[in-house]
Structure prediction request, 281 residues.
Amino acid sequence: MIDEKTLRSAELLFDMAYAEDIGDGDITTNNLVLPESNKTAILVAKEEGVIAGLPVAEMVFKKFDKHIEWKEILPDGSKVKPGDIIVEFTGNYRALLTGERKALNFLQRLSGIATYANKCIKAVEGHQVEILDTRKTTPGYRYLDKYAVRMGGASNHRFGLYDMVMIKDNHIQVAGSIKKAVEAIRSKIPKSIKIEVETTTLKQIREALDADVDIIMLDNMGSKMMEEAVKLINKRAKIEASGNMTLKRIRKVAATGVNYISIGALTHSVKALDISQRIID
Prediction:
């Protein structure tokens, strides 16, 4: 089920979508369709994938006609194939036509994310590893994109800069070392907040272990070096593999024994799932 924050985020995005797409009104629909006419429409999958964003699509249409009757045939998280009917809905004809592109833009993007996330999950089947997203989301779409990741079966990394410590190369440079960075931050935050450190060498991994961090990120490492890193860490911290993670590569990465694989492409390189709207009555 979609949470309130995610739906509120979608409503804010809808306001911008409305302004840029409709402006003073839909001059095509409003000059062809009588205001009191009703129709029934369906949303149909045109390729294989995983659906995400139906509550958002429903919200969009109901912004134009609050009395629309919305009947989901396949709920969010469902796998679809070409020709599958996802939703059937009835309402004001103008609302169906004017809301169509806004609803589909949300639904196709989120379903594309869910579809790719699901492909990644399938690619690492048999390994005890969790697929994570990143903060590489389109501005304003963070909650929606991460919701779609969950619908595809993957998991969310931190939502923002506020809910987890991530010490990266620039932070280490400012502090002078991993140890100094960890000590400075740990003295000022609650114990419940996890600390993760980005590493690129075995030397940095040793320093992160000495600092007793919660998670060690192996950034842009080759598989052989990852195997060495996993042995060195020896379960003293959780391990995240990151950097240039492709669908083709992640099974080999999973086999090294890491706990997490974070994939920016889940959200920063979205290929929309092809979905269409058809008027049926």
The first strand starts at residue 38 and ends at 45. The chain has two domains: 4-116+270-279, 122-268.
